[in-house]
Every structure is written in structure tokens, then in C-alpha cells.
Amino acid sequence: MLKPFKAAVYAFYARRLRARLAGANLPRHVAMVMDGNRRWAREMGFEDAKIGHRYGAEHLDEVLGWCAEIGIDHVTVYVASVDNMRKRDSDEVDNLMRMIEEVVAERLSRPASPWRLHLAGRLDVLPDSTRHALKLAEEATRDDGARLHLTIAIGYDGRDEIVNAIRSMLEEEARAGHSVEDIAARLTADRIAGHLYTSGQPDPDLVIRTSGERRMSGFLLWQAAYSELHFCDVHWPGFRKIDFLRALRSYAARHRRFGA
């Protein structure tokens, strides 16, 4: 709990940052690598660092509220890679998956939630209960055209996504009876993009990674080719509204070149 004076200063600064963004060029789609749950828990003095995953899952709800408040209608969050699922300690993976089921999927399924859920990744590497909970949440949010859009990248690897997209496209073309020469002649980036996990969704304008790491870790390798990147030194559960607003301020100050 912030002390009264510190809380008042924080609130004033947040309002000032928000006011400066009025009329600014803001991202339509923000993607986030939610890094640092375990490190945050250790720094906070928790004996079991895995408790950071619960705080991280709870915090996603708050960050989505900030996005909705400012008018960002597409959000993608990186929850777990394929390597995370395969190489992390089984107890930690089980704990993370339980948090996804009990916190994220359950809250998104509530009628009051404004978010429509999309899934990106290899769901076959997830535990049955997690896969079932996420699919139920996806189905529960599917029919409301007015919803904001949240994509959860879980069991995800950007290189696998591109390989799978090309494979899917080739299989589709083969079923249609096209030759290799025909396929090669008509191959375009847009056709490959149509087979990605995120087909039909806009590419991210801004990618935020918490916890001080300066790398993408295989996240949205195709989609983020021209995204602006923002690296924040705080761990995900400690990612504050002012950190979020600073990222938007940085984005608004940039001149996007889209590879030019």
C-alpha cells in the first residue's frame, strides 16, 4: 500500500501522463511479453517464487483495464512458449497452467468481460484441463461482435508458427490440385499470413517486454516485423500504470518507418 503522499504524487503523475496522450497517435494493437513473475516474487520475499505466477495472472486483468480505458482494442500477451512447457520444472508449469485456468480463463468467460478471446499456439502441448478451460472461454466470448480482442499466445513459438502456416498453405494448395510451379508463382507474404495463428487480426503496433530483457524470445516474429519495441525494467507483476503510459508516450513520439 502506497503511503498517502506517495499515492497522491503517483496519481497526479499518472493523470499528467494521460493528459499528454490526449490526441496523440496511439497504438491500436499492443503485444506484451509478461516477463519476470518469479524474479518479482523473490524480490518481494516470497519463499515460493512460483507464487509470482498468481500475481502475474491477476495483474493481467488490471492491465487489460488500462488498455480498454485508453481505447486499445487489440491486445496479445505471451504466456508460455513451447520450450517453457517442455523444459521448466513440472511443478512450475502445473502452477502456471492452474493460474491460467482459475484466473485468466474464468474471468474472461464472465458476461461482464468486454474481451473476445483468441488463442495462438500449439494447444496440444497444454494439459487437458488448461486446453479445455481456454477453449470454453474462447467459445463463450465468440459471438459478441462489439468485444475488444485479446489473444493469448500459449504453447507458442514464432518459428513453429511460420513453418506451420507454410505447411497449411501447401496442403491447401495440394488439395486444390495445384502444381509446385503454380504454388511458387502465387506465393506472397499475405497468403502465408492468412495461415498464421493470428490470421485476420492486425499486426501489433507496439510490443512491450517487462523485466529488463532486450529480446523477442520468438514472440510474433512474423507479425512484429515493423512493430515499435519498448523494454521496461520492472517485472510484470510490478508493471504500473505509469510504466504503461510511458510506453505509450514513447510510441507516440516515434515516427514509424515500416522498414523504409
Mean pLDDT: 93
Tell me the CATH architecture.
3-Layer(aba) Sandwich
Order of helices and strands: HEHHEHHEHEHHHEEH
Q: Report the biggest beta sheet as strand number plus sense, adding barrel if it closes.
A: 6 strands, parallel
| Principal-axis shape | globular
Helix content: 40-55%
Oligomeric status of the shown chains?
single chain
Please describe what this structure looks like.
The protein is α/β, with parallel strands linked by helices and 260 residues long. The chain has ten helices and six strands. It has a six-stranded parallel β-sheet with strand order 3-4-2-1-5-6, with helices on both faces. Strand 3, helix 6 (128-140) and strand 4 form a beta-alpha-beta unit. Helix 1 packs parallel to helix 10 (241-253). The longest helix has 20 residues, at 51-70. It starts with a helix and ends in a 7-residue tail after the last helix.
Write the layout of secondary structure elements.
Layout: H1 4-20, E1 29-33, H2 37-43, H3 51-70, E2 74-81, H4 82-87, H5 90-108, E3 115-120, H6 128-140, E4 148-156, H7 158-175, H8 180-185, H9 189-193, E5 206-209, E6 228-231, H10 241-253
Task: List the main descriptive attributes of the protein structure presented here.
260 residues, alpha/beta, six-stranded parallel β-sheet
Q: Outline of this structure?
A:
The chain is of the alpha/beta class. The protein is built from ten helices and six strands; from the N terminus they run αβααβααβαβαααββα.
